[in-house]
Predict the structure.
Amino acid sequence: MREFTYKSRDGEVRVLINVDYARSLGELIREYTGCAALVSRGLPDAVKVDCPTMIINDGESGKDINTVIGIIKWVHGLGLDRDGVLIGVGGGSVLDTVGFSASIYLRGVDYINVPTTMLSMVDASLGGKTGVNAMGIKNVIGVIRQPRAIIVDLSFLNTLPVHNYVDGFAEVIKYGVTMDGELLNYVINNKDALLSKDRGALEFVVYKSLINKASIVERDELDKGGERVVLNYGHTVGHAVESATEFSVSHGRAVALGMICEARVGVKLGLTNPDLPKTLLSALDSYGLVTKIDISNIIDSVTKAISRDKKKSGNFLKLPVVIDVGKWELVRISVDEFVRMVTSECRSIP
């Protein structure tokens, strides 16, 4: 079991890793006047919380403003007041939706994240970026508001399908290549233990990933100072691929493609170590995360998605470029130039 806290503008956020979620939740909700749990439809009936429970759709299709309105109607009907708490139990899409609902209900109530997928355990549960999709754009409606606590119970991974489980390692590798060479080497050298879901190995990887993300969030919580953009490495192209394929390519695999592509763009810009794309490709492919895709077939949709990216300012993108493992810098690049480079350098991946 590991525990740490990070600071936010609303106070400290408590992070518990490799604990029993029911016991930890029971202790945390005692301080509230009431609670309501929103649980992913994809979870087994064995999930129990000592609060009224509503089942909501998971996946990108569930990240919709109508889902948020339904949640707010339900919790209002329960009589939940401003000293109550919402609990999200599920993957990243569920946590994003529940966090956004909590952020706007009665102008904001506390919420607790209980991530149940590898992807949400190492990334989506921490950071406070909540929101839903609209108009074919990921998270275009949302706010930044931190959870009060994050409870990571690794036992949820026991029944997670393999393809969903390995999806999370795209984000782990992202933290490794951008900020933490030790983490990247650990993931590369301990593949067998991690793929067999060894608890000790998983605890270390989840802890290191969340500590890295928390360090960035503490310094640039509202995404204004430029540091937080590193958390989007691979996501500019990755989100575009998701949108262009109508989310038929999973988030982890889209981000994997995005990182390889953005590393190639970095090399083309003369900033990135030429060996980095190969290092990334090898690490990601060892976890089965490299999906062969011909971007030229969807380039119009990818271009449109990039031009609407949330990191766009005027006709420019703020892009994190990895120089070498553990070292990155922020680059301002025109949308047109970036799209040209993506078209030329990433037409076919791998």
